[in-house]
Amino acid sequence: MFHMFWHIDPNIRLRMAIARYCYARVPLIGRFLGMLVDRSLLWAYGLDVRSDSVRVAALTMAHPDGILLGGNGIVSPGRVAVMAGVKFVGRSPNDPEFLARHRERAVFRLGDNVVIGVNSVIVGPVDICDNVVIGAMSLVNRSITEPGVYVGVPVRRIGDTVPSDEWVAHLALPTGGHLG
After folding, report:
1. Of 35, 31, 49, which Cα lies nearest the Cα of 13?
2. For 158-179, how does the pLDDT look when each residue is reduced to its tens digit (9 = 90+)?
3. pTM for this structure?
4. Interior angle at CA 157, CA 102 and CA 135, nearest 5
């Protein structure tokens, strides 16, 4: 239990789980309590999130400063590593695809073993397949359908070698098909 309060990553996951519980299960004041817990993540770590819209089976953010996950919906059945300063943003509030996926809370669909480098911007709606590493300060403005290493503004694939899972190997996927 001490580990969850001392280390940043487990503490964030615990607070996000508490916020999701409040949003879903606490009558009358649950949404308010969930938003307070989410704001505590912003105050403590610089992580801007609406926890009920993040459904990632195994998420790591060891350095969460300046990360914007927002409330558009991030979904992944696998392991995802997000580095400092990453922003998940919508293309346009009037884009029909964005609006449809926003209603489903699935604007960003990520695969397993996805690593998003420091200060990258992901402009949704996008899908990112399994085994993708996105380099630092990259702009993802279209879906990534092939595994590999991607960098640049906008991103382009620079390597077709499937990256190892060294950034997410420590994450255990939950059993029973429950997402984050």
Report:
1. 49
2. 988 877 888 888 887 776 544 5
3. 0.87
4. 70
